[in-house]
Amino acid sequence: MSEQAITRDQFSFWAEVEVRWGDMDAQGHVNNAVYFTYCETARIKLLRSIGVLGRSGGAAQGPTLVTTSCDFKQQVRYPATRDIGVRVERVGQRSFELSYGMFRQGTDEFVAGARSVNAWVDFAQARAVPLPDEVRATLGQYKTESP
User: Fold this and answer.
1) What are the phi and psi torsion angles at 138 (to 5°)?
2) pLDDT tens, position by position, 130-142
């Protein structure tokens, strides 16, 4: 994510994620790896909301994670709830890129930002294939201007 200020209005889809006691590490804050699970939760909620169920839903094709990154801005401790905003950055021929903004629930306090690139794959062939037109169009509805 850009070093410019990240604000709530830059995101078009929202997921609420509870911090669990087991998410914390020996330092008493949420372990950095867990942030990727929070993004996964938001990504799956977005995809399910547009009718993409993936392999677990019995589909022959669907998204798979190619790469992801996260910039940590503040520590998070249990108990807490995070609002995770998602926006579509890019929709390509065989992949799409998402950005995530994690905020303290109900506030503008930004705690982390992340990105993911997701390929559309044929599960039997184990290779990337073109995004279906309807998925491309629906993902396009979640594009917002980046800062």
Assistant:
1) -70, -40
2) 999 999 999 999 9
